[in-house]
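hey can u check if this looks right to u? its 507 residues, i copy pasted from the old doc so theres a chance i mangled smth
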Amino acid sequence: MDNLLTMQRAQPAPPCTVVIFGASGDLAKRKLIPALYNLVACGQGMMPAKSAVLGFARREMSLDEFRKSAHDWTARFSRLKVDEGCWATFADGLDYLSGLDHPDGFTKLKVKLEAIEKARGLPPNRVYYLAIPPEAIGESVERLAQAGLISPPDAPNFSSVVVEKPIGHDLPSALEINRVLVKHLDESQIFRIDHYLGKETVQNLLVLRFSNNIFERLWGSRNVDHVQITVAEAEGVGNRAAFYDCAGALRDMVQNHILQTLSLLTMEAPVSLDATAITDAKLNVLRTLRPITPEHARATTVRARYGAGIDADGKPVAGYMDEPGVPDNSRAETFVALKTYIDNWRWSGVPFFIRTGKRMKRRASSIYVQFKDVPQILFNRDSAVPANALTIRIQPDEGFSFDVMTKRPGLDLVLQPVRMNLSYKTAFGDGASPDGYERLLLDVMDGDHTLFPSAQFVEKSWEFVQEILDSWSDGARVPMAEYPAGSWGPNEADELIGTAGRVWHEP
């Protein structure tokens, strides 16, 4: 391509050892091990040379068992087909240690790391990926520090700790986790990961907005009528009922994924592409996000859970309360819809509608930006002309489209909406986009915080969500609605957007 603009890393990431806490768990199986393999796979070559991966968990398992399981996980979940030659190279640096919950577990971890580094000629650069429940984060960091496994921030070799979302269960627990983290680590050593920010289309929000003058000039209350963000999941809770029932859709999706996306979509241009500048620009959005107070909660929020219905394949499925592992007294919601505003100069008066849920009609995540109607003159005098709209598809068909009006060919003057469409798969080929975890893991090794939420962002997002949680706490102010599995959500969500004179866009 003649006009290809490339911005590369200044230098390769240094070699290191990645320690996966909870290596026998679901996240390691489905995401982390496949992502790390993809970084070393033939044709990729992005993983720093000689690097090692050490699984650290409670479960007793031999090294051969772990390597075989890791191979099976990768063959099932990797976006790349497993090449046995490449796998042999990856597996050579793959090790396992049990005893995460033992009193001497972290002492053994230190001995194991030193042995791996000596055998492979590695410097003591270490990434500790805490793929464990939020309530176990504080203790794990404390024990890392007690075992002497965290280097000072100015040391020649780095120690980085990766913390998975959700960071906390509410605002007080998030504050406590951040307190423990900064007690033992410098902020530069902490990576609060949200894999949504590694998605190609989410990252492209910055490029779309700030390298295309046409959109930036339209971006704001002068031209935008309203914005919708939809994150729909077709599956139910599956085998995650124990976790999900303690979280619910608001904590699981809105507090992190959706508020991150909203801030990237609406922030002012950062002064540079430096991580601090981007973080500050995103944080300013949350500072101006209108709180949803108890007196306004019923008019601006909907919570619901799915009932019996059909899945995306047309098969009958049970309702949430009949799922295995869901307690009879559950208060968790599987669907949330919100209406909110960003009270700053650019977005004043523009409503933002958010919805997310499980067991919806299909898996789809998108941003829908509807522009204001044209004046009621000329073509809009006698019949309504559909408004222009920009749709950014985050998954599964990554890309974006722009709806405009045009004249249908012929002798009569007939207007017809047309869609200008970009599909990443069509434009760049299937499999061209790395998985979000691949990109983010490489950024951790490289020490790049650009795509990682700061402590302030996490706390500010929890402040917004906490008010909603408090408003829902008595169960009466915003009653729990129900929607059939396989639908787009409850009628109450349609009423929420309908009272504002809008309708949901089907992603």
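The chain has 15 helices and 17 strands.
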